[in-house]
Amino acid sequence: MKSVLKIMSFVGLSFMMTSCFDKSAPNYQFFPNMYEPVPYETYAESDAFNSPSGEKGKEGQIPAVGTIKRGFTPYEIPNTPEGYAASKANPSPLTADQIDSEKGKELFTIYCAICHGEAGDGKGNLSKREKFLGVPNYKDREITVGSVFHVETYGINAMGSHANQLSKEERWQVADYVMKLKSELK
């Protein structure tokens, strides 16, 4: 009788355990996020970086206030007409032994001569082909080494900024070379 009771309780217990089992809908998941991931759309808005201003997803893309990229030294003179006028009094920070005319000439040839010409006379290939009109001759301009650096940094009129292509020291090298070209023009 005892063995029949054991067999009956075993059968009853196994019936109870298997009666609730359904392969199409499991009863309990220990870590539901691992089994059922949230499908994100590629370019959809996300609540991951909500900013106090209410813009969704923008706070994580904005750099912290006051940060600058590595190796960058800010240029304090603003990009305004007043800043351009103030830059004319700005001397070159390079000492006489740091100025490399050959390096300045090489950089001028690469970045500037296509418009301004090899001699700085405003007759580069793009000017000759009339792609850009009104490229100034350095002889006719009232420029200083500081104003040339300012224009290289921010750009002016049709000329764009060269701050991404040239480092601060390289822009000063080119500015010194431009002043050398200006002195050679008749």
TrEMBL record:
Chain segments annotated as coiled-coil in the UniProt record: none
UniProt protein name: Quinol:cytochrome c oxidoreductase monoheme cytochrome subunit
Keyword Transport: no
Organism: Flavobacterium urocaniciphilum
PROSITE patterns membership: CYTC, PROKAR_LIPOPROTEIN
Protein biosynthesis in keyword set: no
A single GO molecular function term of this UniProt record: electron transfer activity
UniProt keyword list: Heme, Iron, Metal-binding
Segments forming domain Cytochrome c: 99-182
